[in-house]
Amino acid sequence: MIRILTSLVAVFTIGSVQAQQTARETPKLVVGITIDQLRGDYLELFQQTFTERGFKRLLSEGLVYQNIRYDFPNIDDASAIATIYTGTVPFYHGITGNKKYLAIKQKEVPTFDDPSFLGNYTQDNVSPLAIKTSTITDELKVASRGSSDVYSFAPNLGQALITAGVYGNTAYWVDDYTGKWASSTFYKNFYWAVDQENRSGTDFSANARGMRWSPLLDIKAYKAFPFLQGVAPFAHYIGVDKDAYIQAKQTPSVNENVRNTALKLLTKAELGKRISPDFLSVTFYAGNFNNTADYSIEIQDAYARLDREIEKLLDEIEKTVGLKNTLIFLASTGYYNSNEAEYKPEQTIPEKKFYINRCEALLNMYLMAIYGKDGKWVDKFHNGQIYLNRELIKQKEISLQEIQSKAAEFVFEFTGVQEVYTSFQLQHGQWNPVMEYYRNAYTRETSGDLFVELQPGFKMVNDQDTSFKEKQVRNNAVVCPVIFFGNGIKPQKVKRTIKATEIAPTVSYIMRIRSPNAAKEEALSELL
Q1: Distance between alpha carbon 128 and the CA centroid of its chain, in Å?
Q2: What pTM value is reported for the model?
Q3: What's the start-to-end Cα distance of the chain, in Å?
Q4: Is residue 111 part of a domain?
Q5: Which domain holds residue 364?
Q6: φ, ψ for residue 92 (rounded to 5)?
């Protein structure tokens, strides 16, 4: 009798598990939301300014992972989003940032530049071909034999190109100088509804110039930072000069533009209404405006307004496709560009500055003393990396490993330098976690000879280049949640940090397609 009961319990248990595993249908629509510089602590601090159907809804009804980790240095929106959508690191997908230094031409160029293709509503000649591996959206197109529709909308071109992928229908971004929805002739079809929006005369390009940004709520509602009480309401005016749209893309109005146009296409193109899943990618901005301080009324207002855009996005998806038919995932780019204000106490404290132009000059003089004065040995200090003159090194038949090692030893002695890694070490050195971290950001085509790690608190400065944006080194953690929502997903809060490379395999698993071709991680266990 006991054996019979045990067998029955086992049968019912297995049946229950199988029912749970098959309960979630393949989504008819996947919506990927990436939010540039979204901070988890701000989501918590600013909750009093949120509605019940925006961020709060995602956090209470979704599967929420506490934090996301990117296992490589010098993160920006391009390298982060490429990692999310490919499921791998820059060492494989090739996107180390929005710009890259071409040593052979001795100049910095946009990563996605491609003269083979013209721009639609833009002067930029670009394509997504810089991505060296497949993306989630590419794999969906292959699996559906092109029957799935894939569209992306973003403030900036790199964000849009990455999320649309190589096989996407079209990638759209807001052009820096026209304010229109732009794309590349790499994509064959410019959807008529987006073209109609560009020609409407009431679009972002018409409204952003001369725009005024002031608080959405009463100033008393913005009380997350107690030391800001009594601060007057802000009012920012966007000018009408050539940089107007670049400034406007740092305000909440760009998020409204992304959400509004993406939902128009969602409806007009009837996404989520076919057998094969469709994919809609949207990228929002949650960083600072211009030169405002980190602790400001502006950042609280930006989050309050972004919350309303999330609410409208969710409500429209629920009405048109149904949340049970839609998988929504939301992820942050995992970094934060600080606009740290200058603070000068009465006592004299020496400034912590690392001058990259002086480092270049002194290193060049040092190498001249060793190897000769008949050429410039240092090409460029770019994005935390030093590029040596490979052509001259080859002509002089000098060991690359040797000159890199001597250069690293010299730069290591500079005040503010924590460590220096050579590209030879990254490729051939003994393994350790720190070395792997830097190797993940290395690419043979575009990386330098030395990776320079500065001590926290030091500011990178170039006093010979007025266009150089000073940046202070901060290694403190920026907690950034990852949320999966809709498609029968049960609410759950998971207090652990996941890798950015785990998102693509998870989304692929839910869509029942292959993971991108360089994604080595397995799907997150909570969603299996």
Answers
A1: 15
A2: 0.92
A3: 35
A4: yes
A5: 353-472
A6: -105, -45
